[in-house]
Amino acid sequence: MKYAAPILATLLAANAMAATASSTAKVSTKGGKPYFEATETTTAHALVLSINQSNRHVKLKTDAGDTVKVVAPAEVTNLAQIKKGDMVNITYTEKLTIHVEAGGAAGASAEVTSSTAKPGAKPSASASAKAQVKATITAIDKTKGTAMLKGPEGNEFEVTPLHPENLDKVKVGDVVVFTYSQAVAASVEKALASK
């Protein structure tokens, strides 16, 4: 992928930076069918202490006071726009949803998107990936509290819902949809003017 290197460099820098994470989970129903959603977002910030354009080294100071040196890959074309005192911001989000649709077919899909800053602008990049798998309910055993699912490749597996009462809200032939997504965004903001 064309933007994989800058995104990977961004994630590595984020791992070294002080990060703040927040997560949410929601269990409910949509259209009378079970619905689950969980999201976790991690953010990190760092101050640019120095930048060496010739070897592409950027020295950063995290919110925790640690210093980190990263090498900007060649794909970061707007490196000359980064100045001492600029702020690097990184946000990484993961999301999982599971819901049930009345009828349909098993299947799988995936998509990836990415973008970077326009020439001459402060460096920024974003990338996202989403994968979805649909599995058909082939059997329900309320005594055991389980359901059998058949995936897109014909593989069958048994699941035990966290809330067994949800088995009353589904039927054989319904499709369970698992959607997992990841998104990362990195930006550099201009240094704040001194007062």
Overview of the structural elements:
It is a single chain. This protein is mainly β. The protein has one domain. It is 7% helix and 56% strand. It is built from one helix and ten strands, in the order αββββββββββ. The protein has one helix at 4-16, and strands spanning 19-30, 33-52, 57-62, 67-71, 87-101, 107-116, 124-141, 146-150, 156-159, 175-189. Strands 1, 2, 3, 4, 5, 6, 7, 8, 9 and 10 form a ten-stranded antiparallel β-sheet that branches. Strand 6 and strand 7 (124-141) form a beta hairpin. Residues 1-8 have low confidence and may be disordered.
Descriptive tags:
single chain; 195 residues; mainly beta; ten-stranded antiparallel sheet; 1 helix; disordered N terminus
